[in-house]
Design the sequence.
């Protein structure tokens, strides 16, 4: 059940404002009837802000924050149930010890103070944005991108900023896991999830150019696009990084799919041994005389052919 922290209090912006997976699940479970298939826009305006308004804090501070383990990149228009399921699937496979619910995620909607959004964005200085402070804290293990067949996060400028920082961290920090593509069925990079979904995402990313990424604030878009263009390779490097991530994921899913197919064929092969033996017995057994059909001769010389 949803529980507020005993004494909600403010903490520094950035990596110390992550939320545990169990608390994210409690948020969804407590309001599932109202949320239905609605998205993060609804959750923020109708649940997060009313709950945090008396305290003027982030949701993470309201329920009790944690130090981040994973940074979450996502599109607010994704159904919240899809978002929560994808995080849980990642958490169930990511933890080394303890419980999946203890995995801590930095999620902008819940980690940023929705009453101080301009401050969270760094006041126009991207190096001071909470996104950057969290990703570059040295605590982040990887970027979990919540993705569907349309790959909508990659159409948003702030997700482009997060992908850029993920690309740079992948090159700079050994052990950083890079861009993890998370779906309701599992993490594609780990060979989990649906092959159909992976192929649909791959087809989308094959032609997607992140130059088309948009933002609600035109200044944010210009700032982020300028950052990308200043790095070696510019947008071509960022596009290539994303496509490499999905290529590797599709390759792993293909190997996993082949492994599962081989296992099923093996089981079916064992089950056909008895059937093959029975077939051999029937084939080699002496044949019994076949019944003779009655003909007109069976009626003698009566000449009656109306049988």
Sequence:
């Amino acid at each position: 059940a949803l529980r507020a922290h005993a004494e909600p209090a403010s903490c520094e912006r950035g990596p110390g404002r992550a939320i545990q997976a169990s608390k994210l699940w409690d948020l969804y479970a407590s309001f599932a009837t109202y949320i239905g298939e609605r998205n993060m826009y609804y959750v923020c305006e109708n649940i997060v802000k009313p709950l945090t308004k008396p305290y003027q804090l982030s949701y993470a501070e309201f329920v009790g924050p944690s130090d981040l383990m994973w940074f979450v990149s996502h599109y607010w228009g994704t159904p919240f149930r899809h978002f929560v399921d994808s995080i849980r699937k990642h958490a169930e496979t990511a933890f080394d010890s303890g419980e999946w619910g203890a995995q801590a995620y930095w999620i902008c909607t819940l980690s940023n103070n929705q009453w101080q959004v301009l401050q969270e964005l760094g006041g126009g200085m991207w190096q001071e944005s909470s996104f950057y402070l969290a990703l570059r804290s040295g605590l982040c293990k990887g970027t979990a991108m919540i993705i569907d067949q349309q790959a909508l996060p990659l159409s948003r400028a702030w997700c482009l900023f997060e992908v850029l920082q993920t690309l740079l961290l992948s090159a700079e920090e050994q052990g950083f896991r890079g861009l993890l593509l998370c779906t309701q069925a599992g993490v594609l990079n780990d060979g989990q999830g649906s092959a159909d979904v992976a192929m649909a995402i791959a087809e989308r990313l094959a032609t997607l150019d992140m130059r088309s990424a948009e933002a609600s604030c035109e200044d944010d878009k210009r700032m982020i696009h300028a950052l990308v263009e200043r790095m070696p390779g510019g947008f071509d490097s960022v596009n290539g990084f994303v496509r490499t991530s999905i290529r590797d994921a599709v390759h792993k899913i293909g190997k996993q799919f082949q492994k599962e197919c081989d296992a099923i064929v093996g089981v079916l092969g064992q089950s056909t041994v008895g059937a093959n033996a029975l077939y051999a017995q029937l084939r080699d057994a002496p044949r019994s005389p076949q019944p003779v059909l009655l003909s007109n001769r069976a009626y003698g010389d009566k000449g009656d052919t109306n049988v």
About this structure: The two ends are 82 Å apart (CA to CA). Residues 19 and 244 are 29 Å apart (CA to CA). Confidence is low (pLDDT under 50) at residues 302-307. The first helix runs from residue 21 to 35.
